[in-house]
Amino acid sequence: MTIENPLAPPREDQFFEVPHFGGNADIERPISAWEKLWNRGWLRKSMILVVLAAIWQAYGVFSDNSLLFPAFSETMQAFADNVKNGVIPARAWTSLRVLLMGYALGTVLATLFSVLAITTRIGNDLLETLTSMFNPLPAIALLPLALLWFGLGLGSLIFVLVHSVLWVVALNMHAGFLGVSQTLRMVGKNYGLGGVSYVMKILVPAAFPQILTGMKVGWAFAWRTLIAAELVFGVSSGQGGLGWFIFENKNQLEIPAVFAGLLCVILIGLAMENIVFRHIERRTVRRWGMQN
Length: 292
Known about the structure:
The protein has 292 residues and is an all-alpha fold. Helices cover 71% and strands 1% of the residues. The chain has a single domain, classed as MetI-like (MetI-like fold, Orthogonal Bundle). The model has no long low-confidence stretch (mean pLDDT 83).
């Protein structure tokens, strides 16, 4: 029950008119076909590549000097010719085969170092010391030693690849392990997990975005290290890779073929980033809600 104060002045009723905005507002608006296409990342990236190719073609035509800078059309013609005769596929497979071996070995060693560092104090000190010593050292600077130790062949290439992958992957993996929250660590301890099971079931899933970043950077470092190494002594087991293909055509002044080799290196890098690693992201960190 409301008790009215007799001394209070009477209130006048007030009426407010709701402004009319005209028409009913749309709660949902259908997306146009252009917006649907624009929301696709592969299309936006393809448009960027088309624009870059157009700039390349325009500058090549303007310079009118195939010996210094061939046009995009000339490069694509050389690329198509070397794909048709099987040279570029064979050279690319040679490079990828060596790269996969070195990358896999470097990743396994990085995992062992990181697990040792997160589980023991001496392992942590060892990893910090080794990364401080060897991570700033360019892998290509180890080529003379690799030639002395392993000779001119597969062993030297794998040695420099492991060096280029090991430290960057180990650093990112260890940083990811250290960034795991104490709540998740306590959950693992409460379940009685320890050692390798604790690392694989608690630390690795929680730190996987950081680990995946390290694997991406390690792949990029390994890829460019391999091409640089092949430019120097790239004939392995009687057949060179893409780096040696570039070097050979440079000596023969086949500059469109040189650009075709560089284009193949770029295409393989784009495929790894946008197909392989993107597929891993969708199946792991994005499905787990750890990344937008």
